[in-house]
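Take the subject:
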Amino acid sequence: MGWIRWWIHPTATGAAASKTDFAGTGSNSVSWLIMDLRELRCFVAVAEEGHFGRAAARLHLAQPPLSRRIRELEADLGCRLFERIPTGARLTPAGEVLLAEARDLLERAERARERVRGAESERVLVLGTVAGAGLDVGAAALSALRRERPGLRVRLREAPITDPSAGLREARVDLALTRLPFDTSGLTVCLLGEEPLVAALPADDPLAGRPRLHVAELAGRPRFRLPPGTDARWRAYWLGAPDDVPGPVVSSPEECLHAVLWEGTVGLLPAGAARRHARPGIAFVPVDGHAPSRIVTARRATTPDPRAEALAQALTAAFARRPPR
């Protein structure tokens, strides 16, 4: 599964080769591109890391071949996907469009691979997560689960921050490790614990040197915001401000950080972001006056799965054993 075919509009031009329709009449000429899944994986890694060097390390590649694959993908598509900036790489508008499509295509390819392999072995249990929810207890939960169910395999799928169900609504995962609040109708939800929030600010902001701040002190400042159409409760919680406050629309943690660093905006993130996303130019200050993030497991109420239940129980136990913070 090293390649895929993308069908392009009949008026598309460029390096794609013209072919006739399947009926052989030639009346509906179309063009197609053959795209390598490895190129798409490289593209997604650079987009999510915002940096070629970090993406290369994540993919266990040297940076020159990674850069070459991105150039080849840009040549195939006939457009630039990244802009080079002092801190790494930023998506162009075309790159933003491709990112959503590439994630979906890679996910579909992986599901196809797992279905084929699962024909002769136990199906992989897919755990969806979003916004870093509960990842610090994942190892302990997995260790306990393997002792109880040694043959069970678990794969982690990290969903974009625009999807609080972590793929559960689209049946892409068997269990979600996520955060409230969002619409939980039709789901069975179990509270695991809470995580306080931090404000992400430019490092030279007057509030950046404070040990703590109240969320009201951010009033009137531009905020990064989630796209319209995102779950309304989820969107309002992370904005933490009136809906008409100005600010850029973001769809990934990297875009949140770029908005702070390059556009001087502020925003709310889970406290764990201070560890996972620490970098020069951005300060993370603990926030009072805003409800903490509630970490939960969620699964579809209508299709109980004993294996998902076992994983949920392992996660609950791991949270209970977690040392107080």
The longest strand covers residues 187-195. Residues 67 and 95 are 15 Å apart (CA to CA). The chain has three domains: 3-102, 122-193+293-321, 197-288.
